[in-house]
């Protein structure tokens, strides 16, 4: 049985996925979490939750000498890190923008400006201002004709050696952007949604397992499920 657990770490200012050895002591864990959460190890109050929406903690890691395994920590449970003295570390204040004066610009005023991304796209014919590519359209049509929901696939990744594999759950147009999008359910929680975008449901999967990509980022094939081999770092 593996001694490594995959968990979510949440604090007032952060959220990440981590892997820890069950033989790690609470004191060692706190030292690891200090640079992750910004909360000093001596101020950390760590609770185990079944999920982020859970109202009650399963356990509180209140003995620095105990190992994580003592508390029965399991995969995909939540380590909730609170700050016993937030006034010293500014915990929870980094994301408070209520006192920041907002700068607002109307759409008409924005379009008149010459120093904007919109103007750059118009001049250089980028994005929706780009001329239609007939070859790309033909490739897209071929992809639509050859691809079926339920097919195994691999999504292009910029990280060397990382295989982002999953199953195609949706192919077609969407309300959030023009053109054809491919909805993929990843084998691992490397996605951005649960098959919904902006309140519209396109397919169903677990949170953080769903993603939408363009067809040219997807390869169809008999790709087996591959377990991630990650160290003690953010996934």
Helices and strands in order:
Layout lengths: L3 E7 L4 E7 L4 H12 L6 E6 L9 E2 L17 E6 L2 H4 L17 H6 L4 H8 L9 H13 L5 E4 L8 E10 L6 E7 L9 E2 L2 E2 L8 E4 L4 E3 L15
Parallel strand pairs: 1-5
Antiparallel strand pairs: 1-2, 3-4, 3-5, 6-7, 6-12, 7-8, 8-11, 9-10
GO molecular function, one term: microtubule plus-end binding
Pfam families: CAP_GLY, Ubiquitin_2
Subcellular location: Cytoplasm
List keywords for this structure.
Ubiquitin-like (UB roll), five-stranded mixed beta sheet, 3 domains, SH3 type barrels, 235 residues
Word description of this protein:
The protein has 235 residues and is of the alpha+beta class. The protein has three domains: 4-83, Phosphatidylinositol 3-kinase Catalytic Subunit, Chain A, domain 1 (Ubiquitin-like (UB roll)); 103-131, no CATH class; 136-220, SH3 type barrels (Roll), CATH 2.30.30.190. The protein is 18% helix and 26% strand. The chain has five helices and twelve strands. The protein has helices spanning 26-37, 86-89, 107-112, 117-124, 134-146; strands at residues 4-10, 15-21, 44-49, 59-60, 78-83, 152-155, 164-173, 180-186, 196-197, 200-201, 210-213, 218-220. The longest helix is centred in the middle third of the chain and has 13 residues, at 134-146. The chain is globular.
Largest sheet: 5 strands, mixed
Mean pLDDT: 85
Element string (H = helix, E = strand) = EEHEEEHHHHEEEEEEE
Low-confidence region ranges = none
Please give the order of strands in the largest beta sheet: 2-1-5-3-4
Structural class: alpha+beta
What is the CATH T-level topology of the largest domain? SH3 type barrels
Choose one word for the global shape.
Answer: globular
What is the total number of structural domains? 3
State the CATH class of the largest domain: Mainly Beta
Per CATH, the architecture of the largest domain is Roll
Task: Give the helix tally.
Answer: 5
């Amino acid at each position: 049985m593996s001694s490594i657990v995959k968990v979510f770490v949440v604090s007032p200012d952060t959220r990440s996925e981590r892997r820890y050895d069950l033989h790690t002591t609470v004191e060692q864990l706190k030292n690891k979490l200090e640079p992750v959460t910004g909360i000093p190890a001596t101020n950390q109050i760590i609770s185990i939750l079944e999920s982020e929406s859970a109202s009650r903690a399963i356990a509180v890691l209140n003995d620095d000498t105990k190992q994580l395994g003592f508390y029965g920590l399991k995969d995909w449970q939540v380590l909730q890190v609170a700050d016993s003295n937030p006034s010293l570390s500014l915990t929870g204040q980094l994301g408070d923008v209520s006192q920041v004066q907002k700068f607002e610009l109307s759409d008409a005023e924005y379009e008149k400006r010459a120093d904007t991304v919109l103007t750059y796209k118009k001049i250089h014919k980028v994005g929706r201002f780009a001329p239609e590519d007939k070859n790309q359209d033909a490739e897209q049509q071929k992809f639509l004709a050859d691809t079926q929901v339920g097919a195994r696939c691999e999504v292009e990744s910029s990280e060397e050696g990382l295989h982002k594999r999953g199953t195609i759950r949706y192919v077609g147009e969407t309300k959030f952007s023009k053109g054809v999008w491919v909805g993929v359910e990843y084998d691992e929680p490397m996605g951005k949604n649960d098959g919904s975008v902006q309140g519209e449901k396109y397919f169903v999967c677990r949170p953080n397992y769903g993603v939408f990509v363009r067809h040219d980022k997807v390869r169809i094939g008999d790709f087996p499920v591959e377990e991630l081999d990650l160290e003690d770092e953010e996934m």
